[in-house]
Design a protein that fits this description.
It is a single chain. By secondary structure, the protein is mainly alpha-helical. It folds into two domains: 26-93, 434 Repressor (Amino-terminal Domain) (Orthogonal Bundle), CATH 1.10.260; 94-131. Helices cover 67% and strands 0% of the residues. The two termini are 47 Å apart.
């Protein structure tokens, strides 16, 4: 793609609400807050959770502050430790919200599939008549 201006003249702009609708962004600070809330709900200290996860307590503090991002493996361990969904830990979306979104998408895909099947049958009928 050709950009008609030199890179140093390129201006970044915030995305509009329409451009970001339906898009989820990862927020390390919000994720850290959710991890902290899950930990406190279970009355576990940062130090104890760090030991359980085999990480340093300093790294644990940085995770909860949103200054560090957990690895995928650590996210999975947190999910197992807290019995929570990855959707909730990473994005703050409850399992029921995510399930509903997936059900809606599945329903839409089924409608599209039925419409495609109908069109194929019409095409086959047309081809059968012309043969």
């Amino acid at each position: 793609m050709y950009w008609p201006y030199p890179a140093w003249e390129m201006k970044l702009r915030p995305l509009s609400a329409e451009e970001t609708e339906g898009v989820m962004y990862y927020d390390p600070a919000a994720t850290g807050e959710r991890i902290q809330n899950l930990r406190k709900d279970r009355e576990v200290t940062q130090e104890q959770l760090a030991i359980d996860l085999n990480i340093s307590d300093r790294y644990m503090r940085n995770l909860e502050k949103g200054e560090k991002v957990p690895s995928v493996d650590l996210f999975v361990e947190l999910r197992e430790r807290f019995g929570s969904s990855l959707d909730y830990i990473v994005l703050g979306v409850s399992a029921s919200q995510r399930e509903q979104e997936l059900q809606d998408q599945l329903q839409m895909l089924r409608k599209e599939l039925k419409e495609m099947q109908r069109r194929i049958l019409v095409m086959l009928e047309i081809l059968g008549e012309s043969a």
